[in-house]
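Handout, tutorial session.
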Amino acid sequence: MHNRNFISVSFWVSRLLVAVLASAAPVVQAQPAVTVLKLNHTDTPSGSRHAAAEAFAQKVEEYTGGRYRILVFHSGQLGNDPQNVKAVAEGRLDFTTSATGSFAGLVNELNLTALPYLVDSYEHGWRLYDNSTWLAKQFDKLPAKGIRYLATWEAGFRSFTTKTPLNQPADAKGKRIRVFPNDMIKWIMESIGYEPVVLPITNVYSAIQSGAVDGQENPVDTIRSMRFYEVAPNIVLTQHVYSPIPFVMSETLWQRLSAADRQRFMKAGQEASNLSRTLTRDADEANIAAMKADGAKVVVPNRQQFRQAMEGVYPRARTVYGADVDAILADAKAMRP
């Protein structure tokens, strides 16, 4: 009888101790599951598109309460521009940003965004990309190809860096120039006498250094961040093509998102666009000054000569794209400030 009472008391004391300990234990909140996504681009860590990519990743994490985390890869660590576009379309990469013409392999009409001297200024370009009904129709074709357009980030106006002087269009005759895979850019180079050579941007520095090509053309921000002026010290500010960089995501990922999260991703993309545009526009003079200080020779040529030499691209484009040429020209005219 004594043993039975002892066991009973011990049992209740144990239960009481467990209850006290349980009440004193901190309440652990369940952490939301984290989905890790990947964003790859070909800019260096010092470039404006990398700053925009990092800002986008931060905003998405903030707006989704940490449920989504985006890893940003720079310098083409996961692939060059054509590879990035293909990977996003196939759902193997979540985000990328590249020149509008990089998407022409999916929507051929986007080649026309690289018509020479289509856009006069940054503000003109922003109005065109934000308000053009023709451009909106082209971007609306991308989801069927596996890509969702989120916003337009900025790279700027394309100009040349060359090993030999390029003071006038005739100086290009017989020389080789690197281009990315875009018909319009190739036609522009041919119109002034260059032989276009398609190369990934990550191979351009060594190609110029080895003499495989005489130079390349890209926006000022890219020229500095990729340090092309070190091997092609003649910076020729023709500004022949306005070259913003649409920011896109995988349509496969888009379809997995809730309606609320889609809005959060769109908001983050647009805010990163605002940053990208401001950084790129405001940094042009500083980038040029820095390259001059490093020994580059900066030339502002007679742009009218280059404009006239490139005029032949327009009838050539009409033979392929027909009325679409006049449609984008009409929008460009309507969007001039």
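The second record follows below. Compare its token runs with those of the first.
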Amino acid sequence: MNAAALPGPRLLSRAKLPADTVALARFLIGKIVVRELPEGVVSGRIVETEAYVVGDAAGHAFRGVTPRNRSLFLERGHAYVYLAYGISHLLNVSSEAAGTGAGVLVRALEPLDGVPLMQSNRGVVGLRDLARGPGRLAAAMRIDRRLDGLDLCRRGDLWLGDDDRQNDEIGQSVRIGITRDAERPLRFFLAGSPFVSGPRALNRQ
């Protein structure tokens, strides 16, 4: 069977998503983000996440519901997309029951499908840095605020998939680029993956 005939990822059902932010952050390692664009489909395997738990001072839900963060309070499995520092969009997955604000930041992807389109979206050629970091992956997949609130457990413009690939060792460290609750070990990554972001010191096991 040739590569073109291989089946793509299956839609990840909400029932399979752990109803706990930290558990979801670990669970999402190895799962697939699929973006359907007019020019074609792009996808990438999640290799790095960060959990922003209930009551987390570093989380956007900490001070309650606002027009900006209301997607974090949707039932687990919805997209929360925001613009960071007026520069980069970031993709998060809501992670608790409806009405409880928490989420998982998708920090890095291993590019899978539609690499030439992702390269065009980013304006770069190299594969390793194509989606290595939350802003880069959003640019590569053309993710912006128009996708905020989207149900990622339903096929559409953006969804989560699974191909039953077994994870290798999952590493854990403190989160990156925050000042509040900065020492909490709530970052997870696929150990040994060249597509993981962050300093080498945090990626050692």
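Points raised in discussion: The longest helix spans residues 115-122.
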